[in-house]
């Protein structure tokens, strides 16, 4: 069978050499022009006069000036709802065959994001680009013969009128090509099981019959699956079951907070490859092993705009102000945080996806996800972003040699004064006051705004340690287990009150 792996790797190598790298600025202009041309006769395109924008001297500037930015609530209330009432040609030609359900990290109610056939094809094409990049990681030829575990949401999509609904991972997995089915695990039958615990039980029962080389999924849910498989077979680590497991593809969240607890379930480190696949599209993937940054996909159905991530441009609810400036791909700077706006082949227009990113290499157009606009904690001017929180948690892990795969916090008022209240998910038994002091000191050193806030209006830091599985039970109560579900890192006071009631009930 080694000859098969050599052939597959050779074909990927050949494709990678034939496909040339596009000029980023030209590619993005071509994408935007294509979007406007295709959607100019939709209700949205006519309302905002796409034809006139296409005739402008600078299409990108005219587009940014004439089209407002939309978050989910705004575009859904003004436009997307019409598709559920049977209207066609609303924001994209025709009607979408799928709606991606995304509860994300906020709220119990699922967002319903249109997924066109053009988007399905764009995701497939970006997936092929990512597979092509695997040859940069110096993997052995026999890796390309191993099976691939894709642990997302159920592929048993729900029929709703003229379309189907499910999470984007389920939609993508339900559309895998026939030639890939022989490599794909857990297979169609198990992947259709809706109940997360039942699906994982079936995976554990069948695990020894598979030769898994690569796994993809959200880190927290992959960890739980690993633990169930290890427990079911009474082994020490996941490599006792899948000795050829070599590549883990993470996505949607930063892997760093999970790195220590994830590696504790392995016999040896594996190659970790980050991807950026959201309900709205496949936006970036890690192209080379020297970095965990991801290369933006600039020539495949998504037009990007970048808003500087500064407190004066962000509203309390995570939306952006009307006067927020927009930066094009040619003008971005390294190591500065930006809020993403995307326009896509599914009819998302200047859409605030909610993520913040920074460019780590402008020439390669490589990025890292740094957080969420709604998780930007700026009560009393602390200007605390998720990447700073993640860094501080990793410092605690190193200092005390512990694992903290999950955390959440809120700014709460105690006797009228603001404090940051943290809940850390860890099995370690440490003094909470000592942890609070270490966490506070780390954030002061890393963030001058936080340091100033702590000397004035932010009066204290409180830490409570709880078992990590409490976070997963909270997700199960508020949304569901598995799939694309992620834990909210920052809560408002009302939500945090519900969280504390839940924790006290356990």
UniProtKB/TrEMBL annotation:
GO terms for cellular component: cytoplasm. It holds the Pfam family GH3_C. It comes from Gillisia hiemivivida. GO terms for molecular function: acid-amino acid ligase activity. The keyword Coiled coil applies. Residues 429-456 form a coiled coil. This is GH3 auxin-responsive promoter family protein. Keywords: Coiled coil. Residues 390-494 form the GH3 C-terminal domain. Residues 297-363 form the GH3 middle domain. It comes from the Bacteria. The keyword Coiled coil applies. InterPro entries: GH3 (IPR004993), GH3_C (IPR055378), GH3_M (IPR055377).
């Amino acid at each position: 069978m080694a000859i098969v792996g050599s052939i597959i790797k050779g074909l990927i190598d050949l494709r990678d050499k034939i496909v040339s790298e596009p000029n980023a600025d030209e590619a993005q202009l071509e994408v935007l022009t294509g979007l406007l041309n295709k959607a100019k006769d939709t209700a949205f395109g006519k309302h905002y006069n796409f034809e006139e924008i296409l005739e402008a001297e600078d299409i990108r500037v005219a587009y940014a000036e004439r089209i407002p930015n939309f978050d989910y609530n705004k575009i859904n209330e003004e436009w997307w709802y019409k598709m559920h009432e049977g209207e066609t040609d609303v924001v994209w030609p025709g009607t979408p065959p799928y709606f991606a359900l995304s509860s994300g990290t906020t709220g119990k109610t699922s967002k319903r994001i249109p997924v066109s056939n053009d988007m399905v094809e764009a995701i497939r094409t970006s997936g092929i680009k990512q597979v092509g990049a695997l040859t940069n990681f110096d993997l052995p030829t026999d890796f390309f013969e191993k099976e691939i575990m894709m642990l997302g949401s159920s592929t048993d999509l729900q029929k709703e009128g003229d379309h189907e609904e499910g999470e984007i991972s389920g939609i993508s997995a339900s559309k895998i090509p026939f030639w890939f089915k022989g490599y794909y695990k857990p297979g169609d039958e198990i992947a259709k099981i809706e109940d997360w615990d039942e699906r994982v039980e079936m995976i554990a029962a069948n695990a020894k019959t598979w030769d898994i080389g690569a796994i993809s999924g959200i880190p927290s849910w992959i960890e739980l699956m690993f633990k169930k498989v290890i427990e079911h077979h009474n082994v020490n680590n996941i490599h006792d079951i899948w000795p050829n497991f070599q590549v883990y593809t993470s996505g949607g969240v930063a892997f760093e907070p999970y790195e220590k607890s994830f590696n504790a379930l392995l016999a040896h480190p594996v190659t970790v490859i980050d991807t950026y696949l959201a309900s709205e599209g496949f936006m970036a993937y890690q192209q080379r092993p020297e970095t965990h940054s991801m290369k933006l996909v600039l020539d495949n159905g998504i037009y990007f705009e970048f808003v500087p991530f500064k407190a004066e441009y962000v509203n309390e609810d995570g939306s952006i102000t009307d006067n927020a400036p927009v930066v094009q791909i040619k003008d971005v700077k390294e190591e500065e945080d930006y809020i993403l706006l995307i326009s896509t082949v599914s009819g998302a227009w200047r859409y605030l996806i909610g993520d913040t990113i920074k460019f780590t290499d402008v020439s390669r157009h490589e990025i890292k996800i740094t957080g969420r606009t709604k998780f930007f904690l700026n009560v009393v001017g602390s200007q605390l972003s998720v990447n700073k929180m993640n860094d501080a948690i990793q410092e605690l892990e190193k200092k005390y040699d512990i694992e903290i795969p999950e955390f959440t916090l809120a700014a709460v008022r105690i006797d009228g004064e603001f404090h940051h209240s943290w809940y850390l998910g860890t099995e370690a038994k440490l003094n909470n006051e000592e942890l609070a002091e270490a966490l506070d000191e780390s954030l002061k050193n890393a963030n001058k705004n936080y340091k100033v806030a702590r000397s004035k209006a932010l009066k204290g830091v409180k830490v409570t340690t709880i078992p990590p599985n409490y976070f997963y039970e909270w997700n199960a109560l508020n949304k569901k287990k598995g799939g694309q579900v992620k834990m909210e890192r920052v809560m408002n006071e009302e939500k945090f009150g519900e969280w504390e009631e839940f924790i006290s009930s356990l």
